[in-house]
Amino acid sequence: MTGLMALRSHPSTNQDRVGLLVERLFEARRLSLELASPLSVEDMTVQAMEDASPTKWHLAHSTWFFETFVLKKHLEGYQPFDETFNYCFNSYYESQGARQPRPQRGLLTRPSVERVLSYRAHVDRALGKLLDQTLTPDSEVLRLVETGVNHEQQHQELLLTDILALFAAHPLRPAYRARPHTDHPHELDPMSWIEFPGGIHLIGDQGDGFAFDNERPRHEALIHPFRLGDRLVTNAEWLDFIADGGYRKASLWLADGWTAINRNDWRAPLYWESRDEESFAMSLEGLKPVERAAPVVHVSYYEADAFARWAGARLPTEFEWEVAAQGVPTTGNTLSSRALRPLPVDQPSNGLPHQMFGDVWEWTQSAYLPYPGYRPQEGALGEYTGKFTVSQHVLRGASFATPDNHSRLSYRNFFYPHQRWQFMGLRLASEITPR
Ligand SMILES: [Fe+2]
After folding, report:
1. Which residue, 350, 356, 291, 294, is CA-closest to 321?
2. Are 291 and 336 in contact (CB under 8 A)?
3. How many angstroms is it from 278 CA to the middle of ligand 1?
4. What number is the average pLDDT over the span 106-121?
5. Measured in angstroms, how far is the CA atom of residue 291 from the centroid of ligand 1?
């Protein structure tokens, strides 16, 4: 069947699918600019540390992704905006050639922010032209554009993560946004456990929407009966851990973790500061007193693991997390709520775990590995996730900075165990019957 015949057979389905994707694409492109809008040109240019990228780079790189993997291959007659941008804005794609080293992205004072915005407009126009063309429902172009939208959403979260790193390094601790209302800190009831039965469970992408290749194939996993915390670990609980000498007891720590906290002199989560014996934390809303009832954020895997041991528990595996999240709505305190910080649980437990999607990414004890039978997607995007399956841990859920339509049951985020600048926290798990 030709593309045109397929289109005639299912005109509304195809038009709907293309129309929806066009809407999502341009909404995502607009949102990136909205997130950058409180920032000055100088804010957008500087890089706070090796792991973080400048806002200007995020805006350009997400555009480069569409230009490189969609437009150059699929839009006849497409004229690249500037051939030198491939070097500047390629992230890690060996197939696309040499690139600016990540730790030196902040040295790219050229091109200017203004020119990067022109680049975005150029690519947006070309994407509009491409999507105006007739496309079949299973079109490769649609798949690539959808991947590009999801990729840009990942960079939207990173843009906020990296801006916080930048502002936290500034002596005046500027706020990305003023806190819109007065806080009313309160204490929460103790965490409760929710029990889950063991058995063979299906894990991974169910095939009913977009997913990255690392979420496939769907496969069976054997899970023993387990308990999961009905909410995230809070700052109040973390303060207790600190007060009990948690950062000074070697017996609580993995060997690499003990080395890391002593080498770096970590005695609290990233961005915490003590002033007049009160704990403050740098946030997107500036330096604020630590909210006792809010989930702890900016802890490394090492710290999460040590806390869990101190609490007589452990971190969940990613499979346990996925089993526990089945049936939980994927809505929560994500970017669309515009809270821009993790919020306390505001309702009693109803048998389902709270805060599974939103607030903070949740460390799991699972190493980031390919699922059995994993195959990277074809072509250059085969480099997207698969080559990172070494030495990292999986985080599940979503954070307060995760864009809409970017949270799902099977989503696998991953970071190195020492990293803590992402919006990452934890939830406890334990065995029901010690084995
Ligand atoms: Fe990227």
Report:
1. 356
2. no
3. 38
4. 97
5. 33
Residue 431 in this model has a pLDDT that exceeds 80: yes
Q: Which two tokens stand for residue 19?
A: 């129309």
Taking ligand 1, which is a single-atom ion, which protein residues have CB atoms under 5 Å away?
A: 91
Q: How far is the CA of 262 from the centre of ligand 1 (A)?
A: 32
Instruction: Encode pLDDT of 243-258 as tens digits.
Output: 999 999 999 999 999 9
Sheet holding 361-367, edge to edge: 413-415, 393-397, 361-367, 424-425
109 CB neighbour count, 10 Å cutoff:
10
CA dihedral 69, 72, 73, 76 (to 10 degrees): 150
Query: Which residues on adjacent β-strands are paired with residue 193?
Result: 229
Burial 196-214 (b: 16+ CB within 10 A, else e): beeeebebbbeeeeebbbb
Encoding tokens for residue 138?
Answer: 């299973």
Bridge partner residues of 414 (DSSP): 394
- Alpha-carbon distance of 47 to 53, in angstroms, equals 5
Angle, CA of 230, 234 and 235, to the nearest 5°: 180
pTM of the model: 0.94
Distance CA 7, CA 19 (A): 14
Angle (CA) 370-371-376 rounded to 5° is 60
Instruction: Say how many Å lie between the CA of residue 372 and the centre of ligand 1.
Output: 25
Going from the Cα of 29 to the center of ligand 1, the distance in angstroms, rounded, reads 14
Q: Which two tokens stand for residue 99?
A: 């690139």
DSSP code, position 70: I
Output the CA 92–ligand 1 centroid distance in Å. 8
Mean pLDDT of 296-313: 98
Q: Determine whether 219 is exposed, middle or buried from the number of CB atoms within 10 Å of its CB (0-12, 13-18, 19+).
A: middle
